[in-house]
Amino acid sequence: MNARHADGEEADAPIFDAAAFRLDRNEADLIESARRFGARVLAPRAARHDRDATFPLQTFRDMHPEGLLAICVPKADGGLGASYRTYCLAAAELGRYCGATALSWNMHVCSTLWTGALADDLMMTVEERAEHNERRQLHYKRIVGDGAIYSQPFSEGGAAAAGTIAFGTEAKPVDGGFLVSGKKIFASLSGAADYYGVLCTERGEGEGASRRNTLYLAIPANAQGVSVVGDWDPLGMRGTVSRTLLMKDVFVPEDEMLMPRGVYFRAATSWPHMFLTLSPTYVGLAQAAYDFTVAYLRGELPGTPPVKRRMYPTKQIAVAEMRVMLEQTKALWFQAVSEARANPTKEQVLRAYAAQFTVMENANALAAKAIRTCGGQAMLKNLALERIYRDSRCGSLMLPWTAELCLDRIGREALYESGETDD
Ligand SMILES: Cc1cc2nc3c(=O)[nH]c(=O)nc-3n(C[C@H](O)[C@H](O)[C@H](O)COP(=O)(O)OP(=O)(O)OC[C@H]3O[C@@H](n4cnc5c(N)ncnc54)[C@H](O)[C@@H]3O)c2cc1C
User: Fold this and answer.
1) pTM to 2 decimals?
2) What is the pLDDT of residue 14?
């Protein structure tokens, strides 16, 4: 389970071994630095942020000099230039040490991944491309230079975050920008982010609301009319501090557009793997549940007496079943994140839904099985397992690809070709 690094330091083995999964050197190095950061910085802080439901702001400050806030900012703009897959593998490594920090980091990083490598892969006119490349530099400079933190509050409690109707949060075009009003629920990083990357519907006087007119705007946290309300005391992922964000006639300058008009809708419809980016955290949690179980049964878990429980056949079978489930989860997910691209085939999209469903359901199933197998003492709050169990419960609830919606889409799209009906 453990690996010895070139510098002699003992550490967890990577979730995806570089040679076995044919990762290139640069990819493997980035992932390794994320894993080391996770073990060194996230792991010792995770229990406190979970207990107090506080945001790990210092951890985000510590990510800045490591380059982790800019992992997906293109190299030309001062970032590490990680690809979609490299980011996913690095995020899984953070997820095994603190689910809430990894999930929050995902919200931040996606603001740069979607505007970076993903946008580079989208069809844009020459004018749109020039506008986008100029505007995104503003955001990248803040992140690379000042360590600015971005978040992604999309959810509104209705069908918009599921991608079926236009967002209720509206942007009224005015001189030099927009006036934004609306409400976002589950706004992870609320109160901690410097910019809220909000999806809203641009709607001029007398116009109807359309998903095609979705705008993706960075709203400064300190802008007039922005407030964070409500408390945050959930079952799991407590360190995300996902309170409610209110916006009332907030003036947002046009330069704060994270994508040109119409491009978010294009991304959502032609680059569906963008919604698979919540899953890496939960791959990490799945690995963490398995690692905990092996260490615990071997009597090697730090903080517990050296009591071995591995000699019981029932425990051995349980670990074998967990290993099978973990390998299945990793294999399907690795394939899905490796084939993410613009305009994927129908097979690739179905596989992406299947990967999301599998990761989110299996992470929690593995954590539940870990508790049953390790036994009563293993679920005490001084150990990480019960937090892994609670955090992993949240994955299948996350829109737009909840477990229910994944099944819904796989079933429908497997049985109907585009445009087919039974009439
Ligand atoms: C820890 C945590 C952190 C989160 N952080 C963020 C964040 O940073 N940003 C963010 O945007 N969201 C975030 N979320 C929210 C998450 O993505 C969901 O939006 C939220 O869990 C939905 O809750 P709900 O009770 O409204 O869901 P549900 O009621 O299950 O669904 C919401 C709505 O979607 C529609 N819907 C559901 N199923 C279907 C279907 N089959 N077909 C069509 N429409 C359907 C319905 O209209 C429904 O009212 C977070 C959630 C958690 C648990």
Assistant:
1) 0.97
2) 98
